[in-house]
Amino acid sequence: MARAIELPAWPGRAKVAVCLTFDVxxxxxxxxxxxAYARRLSTLSEGRYGVVRALPRILELLERHGASATFYVPxxxxxxxxxxxxxxxxxxxxxxxHGHDHLRSHQIDADVQRAEVEAGLEALANVAGVVPRGYRxxxxxxxxxxxxxxLEHGFGYDSxxxxxxxxxxxxxxxxxxxxxxxxxxxxxxxxxxxxxxxGGNLLAPSVWLENWLGEFDSGxxxxxxxxxxxHPEVIGRGYRLVALDRLIAEVKRRSDAWFATHAEVAAxxxxxxxxxxxxxxxxxxx
Length: 286
Prior knowledge:
By secondary structure, this protein is an alpha/beta fold. The chain has one domain (about 1-275): TIM Barrel (Alpha-Beta Barrel). Helix content is about 45%, strand content about 15%. It is built from 11 helices and 12 strands. The chain has helices at about 30-35, 40-65, 75-80, 80-90, 110-130, 145-150, 190, 205-220, 230-235, 240-255, 260-275; strands spanning about 1-5, 15-25, 70-75, 95, 135, 155-160, 170, 175-180, 195, 200, 225-230, 255-260. Strands 1-7-8-6-5 form a 5-stranded mixed beta sheet, with helices on both faces. Helix 8 (about 205-220) runs parallel beside helix 10.
């Protein structure tokens, strides 16, 4: 169930908050589907491209624009590519939790869901000294068991659900967590994702750019948050990165936007809730 909250003014009198988020999956989703993918070197190499080639490009682009971002990282990716995760942290960006082996929560039992959350926490702490405050479920499917685990482990927010296009409280059995919502139309995979088995779309960047700027314009009109979700192996191809550069530049040109991490947005909403009786954002556990 979605419970609405009152949105505050954004810092610096910005008209809209923009969160650039990246799911740094690398090889994890393929290996999560089947151990047989361990023999599929070409498929795994595409995932690896996301961290060894695309991620440095993305970090350079963000630095050039002075934009902060949130990177959701599976624990297994952190273990396979520790230097890449450390580079994200060194650049001042947020690292969020994205499972451990990128197993889909609705396809595993409660014990494995617990292992996914706890192993992911351990890996991020060991590799980069990070205690993530935010969570994004692999394949964006949150279950009651994982919901309870997020509360148990003190996560401050989730970014897996679609019950509103504004920040809201996702409620289950009388308990709530702050939700920074996503949507498939604001994910790069439906535009660019493709695999041998499933097929997919390989659309021109102009289509993607038009849709995402249209969402931005509606966010400005409503003074709300816009979250974009990207995957380094997808958006980090040369010509698509040029389109991302254009997106950020056009966002800056069209309006005063606050480029923020999800953690910064959550903290801003939580701070506002302490001074406004009309908002009830639960505190982050420590």
